[in-house]
Amino acid sequence: MPFQMIPAAVCSIFFRVNFPLSLIGVWISNPITMPPMMYFAYLLGNNLLNLNPQYESFELSGEWIQMAWANIWEPLIVGCLLLGVISSVLGYILMYIIWNIFVYNKMKKRKDSLK
């Protein structure tokens, strides 16, 4: 999606979530990282659905994708959904740990300054 930072910013305000983190999150998926992420999701979806990859090689062209879409959509969607769930859970846990460490250090510093 072009200009994906705008919907991410609006949704972060609407859902009252971490604004800077939501903007940083969209930088992970950019035109350079998208093809490897999609290919990995496709391979993961093939493994989960016990399918053999239909294509030995990939061509970065609209014509190839249009022709191959009927065979790749299902494993691609399954792989993307699983990766999305896993990465969001791991991201939540990581941010929870980092936030707790930050708060603990801040409280410890405050407690030490009162002595």
How would you describe what is shown here?
The chain is mostly helical and 115 residues long. It has two domains: 1-30, no CATH class; 31-114. Helices cover 77% and strands 0% of the residues. It has four helices and no strands. Helix 1 (5-14) packs antiparallel against helix 2 (19-28) and helix 3 packs across helix 4 (62-114). The protein is elongated and about 70 Å long. The mean pLDDT is 87.
What keyword list fits this structure?
single chain, about 120 residues, mainly alpha, 4 helices, elongated
N-end to C-end Cα span: 53 Å
Helix content: over 70%
Radius of gyration: 20 Å
**Sheet/helix structural class:** mainly alpha
Number of domains: 2
- Major sheet, described briefly? none
Number of helices: 4
- Give me the strand/helix succession: HHHH
Please sum up the structure shown.
5% of the residues are buried. The chain has four helices and no strands.
Topology of this protein?
Layout: H1 5-14, H2 19-28, H3 34-48, H4 62-114
